[in-house]
Amino acid sequence: MQHLQMVDLKRQYQKIKPEIDAAIHNVLESTAFINGPDVQHFGKELATYLGVKHVIPCANGTDALQIALMALGLQPGDEVITPSFTYIATVEVVALLRLKPVFVDVDADTFTMNIDAVRKAITSKTKAIIPVHLYGQCVDMESLLALAKEHHIPIIEDNAQAIGGTYTFSNGTTVKTGSMGLIGCTSFFPSKNLGGYGDGGAIFTNDDALADQLRMIANHGQKVRYYHEVVGCNSRLDTIQAAILRIKLRHLDEYCAARSAVADYYDNAFKNHPHIITPYRAPYNYHVFHQYTLQLKGISRDAMQQKLAAHHIPSMIYYPVPSHKQNMLKAFAGSEQLPVTDMLQDVVISLPIHTEMTEDELAYITTHFIDAAEELKNA
Length: 379
Prior knowledge:
Layout: H1 9-15, H2 17-30, H3 37-50, E1 54-58, H4 61-71, E2 79-83, H5 89-96, E3 100-104, H6 115-121, E4 126-129, H7 141-151, E5 156-158, E6 166-168, E7 174-176, E8 183-187, E9 201-205, H8 208-218, E10 222-224, E11 227-228, H9 239-249, H10 252-270, E12 276-277, E13 285-286, E14 292-296, H11 301-310, H12 339-347, E15 348-351, H13 359-376
């Protein structure tokens, strides 16, 4: 058995090595390293895949969120509603722009933004909502979109963990995650479902004027070279990453299906175990399992990680400290009560999941996980 990893990018690369190597070679031969043709081609191909009018590639997922907020023209002190149970980048950009993050709790089943909590958090100062499609599962967007429309609040979807996923509305219409809000954002960090071989990100929208604004902000605030209309930033997806992502985009549905198959195996292995709660899959979405995240019930998570490590099985905690408890954001934490978030930080644990996992590897992981759970349940 090969060395177990949370994500095995080497094996994934080996399967598509000829395609990847040829794509990189073509960029090297062209020497068009910045804004080369592959960047434009990738933007158009991703827009087609997502069913949106515009994709603006950028340097990373954090930049994507920052540029999206900048394009809305928000002012210091404006409130942005966001879950606390998310990677720090979602909230970091809000604070960076001197906006006020308003933390809301997540749903105990889906781990995504609780719509009732959002409703209670809306004030006259609320100027944006950032739902996070966490671990590969989509927020209940139909309910959130209706609420946002009622209050005329724009939605920026953080789709960094769910690209390739879908959401089905009550009328049967199915759309890609990231395509429903005014703006969608994603990351191409290597471990993502659609990951490059370095940093990268993208912004999506169906609004023509907003797309122009997003492009301008990402390019030093200029439409015409050396003529700067607004304060912007320098955020570009380099051509080599775009060339790699063009290849991997063609395999994205295959990758999502492979991750789903791994999740099915785990679910079947752990079902009905009284101390292991498997991930809930909301009926309105296709969960693409960027992470496979369990909850432990009546078992020490630290002890579980130690047991797994003894058998060379990696595991991760996403996330041990929610945003509202981070030192950098203490100034924004108020009297909000986030009981589900506080509970999840102590009980979640993520197991290896990637596109190249074998049945032998899955059997090894699940057997030792169940054995450890049985041993620890009475500890």
